[in-house]
Write a structure and sequence with these properties.
globular, 272 residues, 10 helices, single chain, 3-stranded parallel sheet, two-stranded antiparallel sheet
Length: 272
């Protein structure tokens, strides 16, 4: 970039006898966008718990906190995850006694929550746990998401009804295709696609089976057989929903315009 000081272009054209020009050259540095690093945005919580058996819960979390940059407080994290009462208990393993399996899973989750990631991805974090322990872990994870403003995405294997009900949103996949994404899957399959939920069949089991071969028995006249069929049906549902929202918005704007016109007419004197 070149900038000139002293005589201007107009001064030169008028043939002034004395001109002084100073030229300064500066180089503009191109600002590079920060490189996207998935590990700085999201944390992964796997199915297996890998810890040092000789460390206590507090020591394990303090080490994780230091490694990840001392972002959050360990004491607060232990209270949020419900493991502050075992802070001085060793983790243990198959050969040495320590915390329970559910508490060990909470320590694993707390380690990942101590970082700066805004998305927590859990992969079958309730596998091998009883239904009550699985529910407590999911509730603790939901509590942590609320406290730290996080997004939690979990893939669960045959979750019990109470665990399934603890989630706010469901993404249903079949052969890699999204066949549903929303907060009321039962209403979508029942009201939009016409499926009938069998008696004494909980919602989670129904959604697992609805896209399989057994799911055809839940429909009076089934017409969806593959993952592509279900994906196309969901895309059609989304388009209809967007169209309905746009129509409602247009109707609301039209009603508002009519109300404004009525108010303007009311403001004019009667003789006009």
């Amino acid at each position: 970039m070149t900038s000139s000081r002293g005589s201007s272009w107009w001064g030169k054209k008028k043939k002034t006898t004395t001109t002084t020009t100073t030229t300064t050259t500066t180089t503009k540095k191109k600002t590079k966008r920060p490189r996207f690093v998935a590990s700085k945005v999201a944390s992964y919580v796997g199915e297996r718990d890998e810890h040092s058996a000789s460390l206590t819960v507090a020591e394990t979390l303090e080490f994780a906190r230091r490694v990840q940059g001392k972002v959050k407080d360990c004491c607060t994290m232990m209270r949020v995850m419900g493991i502050d009462h075992v802070r001085d208990t060793v983790i243990g393993d198959e050969r040495s006694r320590g915390v329970s399996g559910g508490q060990r899973k909470r320590v694993t989750i707390a380690e990942m929550l101590l970082g700066n990631a805004r998305v927590i991805c859990g992969d079958e974090i309730t596998t091998g746990l009883d239904s009550q322990t699985a529910l407590e872990i999911v509730r603790a994870l939901k509590n942590a998401a609320t406290v730290y403003h996080l997004t939690v995405v979990c893939a669960l294997l045959q979750p019990p009804p109470e665990v399934y009900a603890a989630f706010d949103r469901l993404v249903l996949l079949d052969a890699g295709r999204v066949v549903y994404d929303g907060d009321d899957a039962l209403a979508y399959f029942r009201d939009f696609l016409g499926y009938v939920v069998p008696e004494r069949k909980d919602e989670a089991d129904f959604l697992v089976e609805v896209t399989a071969a057994v799911g055809r028995s839940y429909h009076p006249s089934p017409s969806l057989y593959s993952a592509d069929d279900f994906a196309r049906a969901f895309d059609d549902h989304q388009q209809r929903s967007v169209k309905e929202e746009e129509d409602e918005q247009d109707d609301d704007e039209q009603d508002d315009d009519e109300e404004d016109d009525d108010e303007e007419d009311a403001e004019w004197p009667a003789e006009y």
